[in-house]
Design a protein that fits this description.
Elements: H1 3-24, H2 30-35, H3 42-53, H4 56-69, H5 74-90, H6 92-98, H7 103-110, H8 114-146, H9 151-201, H10 206-209, E1 213-215, E2 221-225, H11 226-236, H12 249-264, H13 267-270, H14 279-297, H15 300-316, E3 323-324, H16 330-336, E4 341-343, E5 351-352, E6 362-364, H17 369-376, H18 381-419, H19 425-448, H20 454-467, H21 469-478, H22 484-508, H23 528-545, H24 551-561
Helix pairs in contact: 1-9, 1-18, 3-9, 3-14, 4-8, 4-15, 4-18, 4-20, 5-12, 5-14, 6-14, 7-8, 8-9, 8-18, 8-19, 8-20, 8-22, 9-18, 9-19, 11-15, 12-20, 12-23, 15-17, 17-18, 18-19, 20-22, 20-23, 21-22, 22-23
């Protein structure tokens, strides 16, 4: 069976599965729409959380970044993983014990203020739309290659699929769909990684293969370690050594820290812990999710290295002199049709050549590496189709989670809690679905017109979360003295500072976007950590100058942190 037919069957089959689950698990009440009824098993919630968290940026783009940036790309691995641990240990159980539907709901009650709730809604929507732009772009990239349509058309198809199961099923439908998507995603990621690891190093586990010697076609050791070969190839082609970085130490620390605290402040991940029956189940599901995430995240460095070697050798040839373009491997021809790979024959010798600087004749989009890896390594067609289905699952699962946050923020926090408190349960559900529909249209626009490649856009969303919601949530749990004035001032200034810094360097003056002009040498991807410091500082100063927290709020915070009653979530 040819690749195209297999792709239609496997991707189409996965879509049919998601839609069938959405119909089976469609929401009938606001509680089912917002938190899946609060009865999800911890293992199921762990799988759903892993799928929600491992977005298109993780599945499609992260290995590409590590493959092209080498050591510098490791900041994304460290930041995102560390952030998940921070979220699981410091925030999830307490938020679950509080017993509310959304992050703005928590902040509104904790800071006894509709203004705090509204500011949190704005922050959540701002973060979600920045994040979802990367996901929809990822959907377009996958469709453009494997369904052979324009990227824009791919985005429109993805919008239609997400619209169906997010709007119909709410959190209940999304939860069980994400469990299926995790299974598709992890199987699709591990199969080609194991295949290539065996082919290149003789080891079944890619994590072991990363540090092993390469083998020849007969399976005999060549005596050359994979990473040594990559370092040598990089130096020969004018790149920095693969295992050495170019970012300054302060920028590496800032980006890693911003990604960590940003992860812990992501509203679509936090809300997943509201869906389990008990507080201890929130801890348990966080552990299961971490285990499931680790399977992919420990594989990413290996897959990135395998892909880098294979990509260079198939473009430059075994003698590193270039390959005649008319005899280029099929994967290059296939991706050229999407516009994500292009060749400029600068020396008119008819050969492709990949290098750094003036010698380079190839333009290769980072986002294609994982999707193209099975083709580059000449794996069977069913593996290529499987990876396409996995990429779609990654992008769609996170998009659905983000859409839910947008819809609940509008219908529950903005309308029900602010503008129209007397609306019925049915009306609230209707508005939630309308907000989902509007959200997917806006997300589709950003997917068609993204301000950067997938992981970079997502990294900016993490910076915004780090500078706005994270400090307010942490102070809301661990400080009995932080008042509403301080929290609101902190969120507003943190978000304003960070978004202004990003907008200045990314959109207003991109020519100045370099270390010479950055504040303290920190790039826009890492500025969220400074925004977080600004948030904390402003919040503390304003708190000192304004009224104390009411006594009943201090008692409520005490009850959230006190172990008594931790078996069941409390509705404060």
């Amino acid at each position: 069976m040819d690749l195209q037919t297999l792709t239609y069957l496997i991707v189409g089959g996965s879509f049919a599965l998601y839609i069938a689950i959405a119909i089976w698990a469609r929401a009938g009440s606001t509680k089912e729409f917002y938190v899946a009824g609060g009865g999800v098993h911890p293992i199921m919630n762990g799988a759903a959380t892993a799928a929600d968290w491992m977005s298109a940026a993780s599945f499609i783009s992260l290995a590409g970044i590590v493959s092209f940036a080498g050591y510098d790309g490791s900041v994304y691995l460290m930041g995102w993983t560390g952030g998940y641990v921070l979220l699981a240990l410091c925030m999830a159980p307490y938020l679950r014990k509080f017993g509310k539907f959304t992050v703005p709901d928590f902040l509104g009650e904790r800071y006894y203020s509709q203004a705090a709730r509204t500011v949190a809604v704005v922050c959540a929507i701002f973060i979600c739309f920045t994040y979802i732009a990367g996901q929809m772009r990822g959907v377009g990239v996958v469709f453009s290659r494997f369904l052979e349509v324009e990227i824009d058309t791919g985005v429109y198809i993805g919008m239609a699929v997400v619209f169906f199961y997010a709007v119909l099923g709410g959190m209940k439908g999304i939860t069980y769909t994400q469990v299926a998507q995790y299974c598709v995603m992890i199987f699709a990621y591990m199969v080609p990684a194991i295949y290539i690891s065996i082919m290149m190093t003789g080891h079944v586990f890619p994590q072991v293969g990363l540090g092993a010697e390469l083998v020849d076609a007969a399976g005999n050791s060549t005596g050359v370690y994979l990473l040594d070969k990559l370092d040598g190839l990089s130096a020969e082609l004018g790149f920095n050594q693969y295992t050495e970085g170019t970012k300054s130490t302060i920028d590496v620390i800032a980006i890693t820290a911003a990604l960590m605290v940003g992860t812990a402040g992501l509203p679509h991940v936090i809300v997943r812990f509201f869906t389990v029956p008990k507080v201890k189940d929130a801890r348990s599901s966080a552990g299961w999710a971490l285990l499931m995430i680790a399977i992919m995240y420990t594989t990413i460095p290996a897959l990135a290295a395998f892909s880098r070697v294979n990509m260079i050798e198939t473009i430059n040839g075994p003698d590193q002199a270039g390959v005649v373009h008319s005899e280029a491997p099929a994967w290059i021809k296939n991706w050229e049709k999407t516009g994500l790979i292009s060749w400029d024959d600068k020396n008119a010798d008819g050969k492709m050549f990949y290098a750094n600087g003036e010698r380079n004749e190839m333009k290769i989009d980072n986002d294609i590496i994982v999707l193209a890896t099975p083709e580059i390594a000449s794996l069977p067609a069913w593996v290529i189709a499987l990876v396409a289905a996995g990429g779609m699952a990654a992008a769609l699962s996170t998009s659905a989670g983000l859409l839910l946050v947008i819809s609940t923020s509008v219908s529950h926090d903005l309308l029900k809690k602010n503008l129209a408190p007397n609306m019925s349960d049915k009306q609230e559900l209707t508005y939630a679905r309308i907000a989902s529909a509007v959200g997917i249209v806006v997300a589709g626009y950003f997917g068609v017109n993204p301000p950067g490649f997938v992981a970079a856009v997502v990294a900016l969303a993490f910076g915004l979360a780090a500078s706005s919601l994270f400090p307010a949530i942490i102070m809301g749990i661990f400080s009995k003295t932080m008042n509403k004035e301080g929290a609101i001032a902190g969120m507003v200034t943190g978000l304003t500072f960070t978004s202004g810094y990003i907008a200045y360097f990314k959109f207003m003056n991109p020519t100045l976007n370099n270390a010479e002009h950055w504040f303290l040498g920190i790039s826009p991807e890492g500025i969220g950590i400074i925004g977080m410091v600004v948030n904390f500082t402003v919040a503390l100063v304003v708190m000192k100058m304004t009224a104390k927290v009411p006594t009943e709020i201090g008692e409520m915070i005490e009850s959230i942190r006190f172990p008594k009653g931790a078996g069941e979530a409390q509705d404060h």
